[in-house]
Design brief:
mainly beta, Immunoglobulin-like, five-stranded mixed beta sheet, 0% helix, flat
């Protein structure tokens, strides 16, 4: 590619300055992206020996040339279903620019417990890794459910230092067997106002947990109410809140933060178990400036990992146009059986030809929880005894320690 610029020097009539720029034509390259960073089967409990309904990941080539796929595999008790229309070949293949195919995955546990795995789409340039998670309990074990599955404290906003009105969640046990409730907790800035759940929740009965939002600073917050059962099931309710003092704009960058590269969250929190990948949480980064930014680096510190797969994932060397955004999904992999960990997600970028580096960091907090093997419950008809020797992992999402997430007025 070449260009020619003609300009008058303004010194003598007829004087012309010619300047030219030549560059090699870019070689078309493929870039794989996935429709999701994780597939979670734990919303429906699957008994050992049974197979869940399929969940589908769409793989798209968002590049300018063909993308070579070296193979597609799934680990853990997860299987790729073949013979589905539009499915990606599991062996070596090529996906044309702009084309897409699908990967159908099923959860087929052989033993009870919380299971994790990874769906990998191999590529020499843009490999995808998608987290997989499922819960298996014996058919004779009771299962609890929550209603609603989300508590929203965003409207009206709660002033820093104040406390919102309480909102309640009903925890219900079905018709199979009694369920022991071993732990009920919520992460700051949310707290449990009241909890009438008994040690053992009888068949066809329910209990109530009330939660309040008590922010210490202006901004948006997210978190989780987690109810842990003796069977190993961890029931999660998403929490969201907004705090405004009326004197500052939510989303104002922290001191030293870039005013051009902004994020929709100031912190993210997780619950995890030793050596196991938690559910990924996503932060969206936006170019709030007037010129394009080129992303230089996306990295994490501490026991946190960036996962790829989302179609809008931030990538190194990616150009982010003014007003455009991309996302980064991060998971927590606890290095100890209990305790808290901290880290940071940092994205750096710079305008083309500029020496000014724009950097935005998001605080990451993780809490490791001890695994729960679950004991025998004589009232359950013996079903729980099948779990006595199994390691049932209580995985949660989104324990946000001091989650001062903020949204900028320029971040839409």
């Amino acid at each position: 590619m070449a260009s020619l610029q003609v300009a008058g020097t303004g010194t003598s009539p007829g004087d012309i300055t010619l300047t030219g720029t030549a560059s090699a034509k870019a070689t078309p390259a493929g870039a794989l992206s996935g429709s999701s960073g994780s597939l979670d089967f734990s919303g429906t409990v699957v008994a050992p020996g049974a197979t869940s309904a399929a969940q589908v990941l769409t793989v798209r080539n968002a590049g300018t040339g063909p993308a070579a796929i070296t193979g597609i595999t799934a680990s853990g008790p997860f299987t790729i279903r073949s013979g589905v229309s539009g499915a990606c070949p599991t062996g070596a293949s090529s996906l044309a620019a702009g084309a897409s195919c699908t990967v159908s995955v099923v959860f087929a546990p052989t033993v009870a417990g919380t299971h994790t795995g990874t769906l990998t789409v191999g590529s020499a340039t843009t490999p995808l890794q998608v987290g997989l998670k499922g819960l298996s309990l014996a058919a004779s074990v009771g299962v609890i459910a929550a209603n609603p599955a989300r508590l929203d404290f965003t409207s009206p906003a709660t002033a820093p230092g104040k406390e919102s009105d309480a909102k309640t969640v009903s925890v219900t046990n079905g018709a199979i067997a009694p369920v022991s409730i071993t732990k009920v907790e919520a992460n700051a800035p949310f707290r449990i106002a009241s909890n009438d759940c008994p040690a053992t929740l009888a068949v066809n009965s329910s209990c109530t947990v009330a939660v309040v939002y008590a922010p210490s600073a202006a901004g948006a917050s997210s978190g989780t109410l987690a109810v842990t059962a003796g069977t190993g099931q961890v029931l999660e309710v998403n929490l969201a809140g907004t705090s405004s003092s009326g004197t500052s704009t939510p989303g104002t960058p922290t001191d030293g933060g870039s005013t051009v590269l902004v994020a929709d969250m100031a912190s993210q929190g997780y619950i995890g178990a030793l050596g196991q990948a938690s559910e990924a949480k996503t932060t969206v980064f936006r170019n709030a400036g007037t010129t394009p930014l080129v992303i230089r680096d996306v990295n994490t510190s501490g026991p946190f990992e960036v996962t790829t797969g989302a179609a809008d994932a931030c990538r190194s060397a990616q150009t982010l146009a003014a007003g455009a955004s991309c996302s980064v999904a991060v998971l927590f992999r606890a290095q100890t059986s209990t305790g808290d960990s901290t880290g940071a997600l940092t994205v750096t970028a710079a305008a083309t030809g500029s020496s000014t580096v724009e950097s935005r960091a998001v605080r990451l907090d993780g809490r490791a929880m001890a695994t729960n093997a679950g004991g025998r419950n004589d009232e359950s008809g013996g079903g729980a005894s099948d779990l006595a020797t199994l390691l049932l992992l209580g995985l949660g999402v989104a324990l946000t320690a001091a989650a001062r997430a903020r949204r900028t007025s320029r971040f839409s």
